[in-house]
Amino acid sequence: MRNYIFRRSLTLVGIMVGILVITFFLTRVLPSSPVEMMLGAKPTAEQIAIAKQELGLDKPLWHQFVSYISQAATGDFGKSLRTGQEVKSEIIKHMMATIELVTIAIGISLCTGIPLGVWAAIRNKTPVDQMARGVSIVGIAIPSFFLAILLQMLFYGVLNWFPLQGRIDSHILIDAQFTAVTGLFTVDTLLAGDWVAFKSAVQHLALPVLTLSLATFAIFVRTTRNLMVEVLSQDYIRTGHAFGLSHSKIYFFYALKATLVPLLTVIGLTYGFMLGNSVIVESIFDWPGIGRYVVESVITNDFPAVMGVTLILSSSYLLVNFIIDLLYFTVDPRLSPEV
Questions:
Q1: What is the Cα–Cα distance from 226 to 221, expressed in whole angstroms?
Q2: Domain ABC transmembrane type-1: where (predicted)?
């Protein structure tokens, strides 16, 4: 197992280096210049020379790359050209907002989608199965931006149950009595015992979480249902019924366990994908997440921010899938490299 982890770690490092090389050189060949971002319109030649020296753009390209790699290895991504703040601190703030949103959405989808997928497989080719498949098709077919707008119109415009946008009420954020320990507002407000702020954080989470949950819920329903239908036709499942084992034990212990390896793959890929691709939902709900941050950075050619976000998102995606690979061995020991 140690050899496997070591080999996988080397592979991950190699992939990260490749991503950094590609992203670094692509940001340097874009037609727009970061100097224009700093100085605005019609800068003088002297201002341009000073700005290039400050950014290190007056040095050879290979020297810029080596310098960036050495700084990135220590967690220093430089300062954002757009905001003037440290890229590292901005990434952490925006990344934690996205992690909170995506993790809760995935958790709700798993807790609802997997049981419904199992139920649909048990009731294969019945109205229950057709209903579950219909719900999953609708969830996948409805665009996220359209669903988000509908939810805003219903729950804010008509019912006035949840706030329209933002992460927490502005007056609470200004007069916050909770300390940002983890960057997850729901956790930090609970740790501080600030129930007013906790309620506000949950209310602001409701609509974006519901929007993200529907699409992932549909994926988990269809995946679980299709995998369970195949497993339930196996001989050992029929043998379990013949020996009089309880239905719940057969379905949720033996049958569902047999689907966990491919199901874990779908979960890992979905979670990693959503970390960097929830930008539409974040934009509609004015959620200060990493997806929205990187889009704004790309538009303004803020290459220190783009490089920092690329490294963090790539690392997160690779780390999630590496953890999923290790979970395979726990679910099915036969897959262990030592067997």
A1: 9
A2: 95-328
Q: Which domain holds residue 13?
A: 2-72
Measure the CA–CA gap between 234 and 251, rounded to whole angstroms: 12
Report the C-alpha gap between 34 and 146 in whole angstroms.
35
Domain count within the chain: 2
Do residues 246 and 328 share a domain? Answer: yes
Residue 157, domain member (yes or no): yes
pLDDT of residue 286: 86
* Residue 208, pLDDT score: 92
> How far is 169 from 286, CA to CA, in rounded Å?
12
pLDDT of 338: 60
CA angle 232, 234, 238 (to 5 degrees): 80
What gap in Å lies between CA 237 and CA 122, rounded to an integer?
12
- CA distances to 70, 73, 163 from 77, rounded to whole Å, are 10, 9, 35
**pTM attached to this predicted model:** 0.83
Averages of pLDDT over runs of 10 residues in the chain (339 residues) are 77 82 72 59 65 66 76 77 82 88 91 89 85 83 86 88 85 72 85 85 91 87 88 83 82 83 86 81 87 81 81 84 82 65
Please report whether residue 77 resides in a domain: no
What H or E segment, with its residue span, contains residue 280? helix 279-284
Contact 98, 275 (CB under 8 A): yes
In 10 A of CB 255, how many CB atoms? 23
For residue 335, the tally of other CB atoms under 10 A from its CB is: 12
- The two tokens of residue 271 are 């979670």
